[in-house]
Every structure is written in C-alpha cells, then in structure tokens.
C-alpha cells in the first residue's frame, strides 16, 4: 500500500473518478480508504463544505484528503473538489431534447418505474444536501420583520406554495409576482433587514436575479431555494437550500422543491410555537365560514 501520487492522469469527471477509486480502493492505506469512502458516500458535501469539515466528518486529518487527492493524480484538494462541482455547473438539457427521448420510450410500466425511482432519489438527496443548511434558514426567517417570496415561470408554483402555506400562520409574508410588468414597483417595497426568499432552477429567469440584486441594494437578506450552490441566485445569498430536479420527463422536476418547502414550513411552525397554531385555526375557520371549502357533511 502506498500514499504516493500515482503516475496516471487525474480523472476529469465524477464518473471516471468513481471508477478510479473503486479500482484503487483495495490498495489504498486505511486512512485513504476512510476518506475515499466518505467522498463516495456523500458527494453532495464536497462542493458545499470546507476541506476541514469534510475531514472531521470523515474522521481523518485534512492532510489525508490532500494526499488522497495527490495519489489520484491531482495537484491538491481543490483540483479534486472541482470534479465534484462540475455536475452542479452543467447546462440544463433543452426541453425539446428531453421530449424526444420521452417519445422514444415504448413501455409505460418501465417509464413509471424509472420516474418513481428518480423521484425517490431526489427525495433522498434532500437531507444530504441540506443537513447543515436548514437550521440557519429557519433562524433567519423566524427573526425577520417581513418576508418576501418570489419565483418565476416554472418556479412560481413552489414559490406560491411557500407563500400560501406560510401565510396561514404568519401575516407578514408577501409575494413578489411582477404581474403586468409591475416587478420594479414591487421591488421598491423591500426594506433593510427584511428577507427575500427566491426559488429557482435552471434555466434561471432574469427576473429572479433582478429580485436578488434589488434585495441586496435594499439591505435585505436573501435565502435562495435552488438546484445548485453555484446557481446565479445562490452566489450572493445569505442561506442556500438545495433541491435536485432530476427527471426522466422532458421538464426538470419540482417535486423535491415542494418537499423542501414543506419541510422548511414544518420547522418554521415548530419554531413559532402555540401562537402559530392559533393563527392556523383562525385562518382555517375563516375559510370554512366564507364558503371557500365545500361542505362535505
């Protein structure tokens, strides 16, 4: 066993890196195996966390990760980390390209099986991607004087879900919609120390970036719910919550985004306590009294 750098070239993508580690794993030192196993089991942590944090979670010294990277042919940790970051920077697939692939499928049962498996994978990734990110977002939102929510085009649905459900137990929540070209007017309502929650996934809308820029100019905090930590709306955010959008269909899936929002709201409700429960009861009673819900008795 050896910890020296291998003579072969460093893998340039995650798939080839995984193949290399699987091939070299039996001959690695015990510490290298511990570090490599962590990288393979928690690939979502590598682009997000610092080397020291990853080393601590894996149970090795930071220097071990550096030497592991060098043994795989890289100059150092940052070069290895860049391979894990590549999938987050990939360009979104064109809808038409995905639609052609869907049309080629001939077995409805196979399509259903693949779709369910893909969505299950998306849900499993939510915890891995947001394990250390959810609490800071909940804390920031709980202390905010006012919360603005925005999401455009395909991201409007998840954003509206957040706004609708949050309003059930908090009145100081508003939606930035930009109907009839009024976005600039609505952005002027953002004040210092308020919070803007922006939801978005690739391809990203121009409006979402304008919302982030306006929030920063106003001195407001930004929480981004998006598909990548390197998304344009995430780069200048105070908190980033990440959801995967993998889908065998022609359009990125927003299922994990909605699930993440439901989890976030559950935590916000728990943080708000008994008063939030009272507010929900009042809102629910009003909806029934005004005839918003059908009487099924």
Automatic annotation (TrEMBL):
Species of the source: Pollutimonas subterranea
A Pfam family matched in the record: HTH_6
Family annotation (Gene3D superfamilies): Glucose-6-phosphate isomerase like protein, domain 1, Winged helix-like DNA-binding domain superfamily/Winged helix DNA-binding domain
PANTHER family assigned to the protein according to its UniProt record, in alphabetical order: GLUCOKINASE (PTHR30514), RPIR-FAMILY TRANSCRIPTIONAL REGULATOR (PTHR30514:SF18)
Positions in coiled-coil regions: none
All residue ranges annotated as the HTH rpiR-type domain in the record: 15-91
Xref: PROSITE patterns: HTH_RPIR, SIS
A GO MF label: DNA-binding transcription factor activity
Protein name: DNA-binding protein
Sequence ranges assigned to domain SIS in this UniProt record: 137-278
UniProt KW keywords: DNA-binding, Glycolysis, Transcription, Transcription regulation
GO biological process: glycolytic process
InterPro entries, sorted: Homeodomain-like_sf, HTH_RpiR, RpiR-like, RpiR-like_SIS, SIS_dom, SIS_dom_sf, WH-like_DNA-bd_sf
């Amino acid at each position: 066993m050896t910890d020296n750098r291998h003579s072969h070239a460093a893998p340039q993508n995650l798939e080839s890196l995984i193949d290399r580690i699987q091939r070299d794993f039996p001959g690695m030192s015990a510490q290298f195996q511990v570090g490599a196993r962590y990288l393979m089991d928690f690939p979502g942590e590598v682009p997000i966390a610092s080397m020291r944090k990853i080393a601590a979670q894996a149970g090795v010294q930071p220097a071990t990760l550096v030497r592991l990277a060098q043994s795989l042919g890289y100059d150092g940790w940052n070069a290895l980390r860049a391979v894990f970051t590549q999938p987050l920077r990939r360009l979104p697939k064109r809808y038409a390209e995905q639609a052609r692939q869907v049309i080629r499928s001939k077995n409805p049962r196979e399509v259903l099986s693949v779709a369910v498996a893909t969505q299950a994978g998306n849900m499993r990734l939510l915890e891995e991607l947001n394990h250390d990110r959810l609490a800071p977002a909940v804390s920031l939102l709980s202390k905010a004087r006012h919360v603005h929510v925005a999401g455009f085009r395909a991201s409007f649905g998840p954003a509206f879900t957040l706004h609708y459900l949050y309003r059930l137990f908090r009145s100081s929540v508003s939606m930035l919609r930009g109907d009839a070209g009024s976005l600039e007017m609505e952005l002027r309502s953002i004040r210092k120390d308020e919070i803007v929650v922006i939801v978005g996934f690739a391809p990203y809308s121009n409006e979402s970036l304008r919302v982030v820029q306006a929030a920063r100019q106003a001195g407001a905090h930004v929480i981004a719910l998006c598909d990548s930590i390197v998304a344009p709306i995430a780069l200048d955010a105070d908190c980033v919550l990440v959801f995967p959008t993998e889908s065998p269909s022609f359009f990125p899936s927003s299922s994990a985004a909605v699930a993440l929002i439901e989890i976030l709201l559950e935590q916000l409700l728990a943080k708000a306590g008994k008063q939030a429960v009272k507010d929900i009861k009042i809102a629910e009673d009003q909806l029934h009294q005004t005839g918003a819900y059908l009487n099924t008795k």
